[in-house]
Amino acid sequence: MAAAPDKGAATEAVDTAMAESLPLLRGERTWSFVDVLSVKSGLAIATWAFLFGGTTAQFTGFVDGVVATFFGLTIGIVLLLVAVVQPSYRWGTEFFVHQRSVYGAGGVVLFVLVAVLVAVFMWASILATMVGRATVEITRTVSTTSDTEAGGLTTVVALLMLVVAWAILVRGSRGVRALNRLAAPALLVLALWLLVAILQKISLEGLLAAAPIAPVPDRAMNIMLVVELHIAAGLSWFALAGNLARYARTPQSAVWGSWIAYVMVGTLSEVVGLASALTLSSADPVAWMVPMVGPVAGVVLLALLAVANLSSLVGMVQGNAQTLVQHLGAGLQGLGWRRFTAVMLAGVAMLVVLAPAALYDHFYTLVAYLQALFAPAAGVAFADRVLLRGGFVDVRALYTTERGTAYHFWAGFNPTAFVALGAGAVTFLALFDPLAYTGTPVFLHLSATVPAFAVGALLHTLLSRWLVVPSGRGSYPQRVPR
Question: Measuring CA to CA, how many Å separate 437 from each of 119, 179, 329, 433?
Answer without folding.
Answer: 20, 37, 38, 5
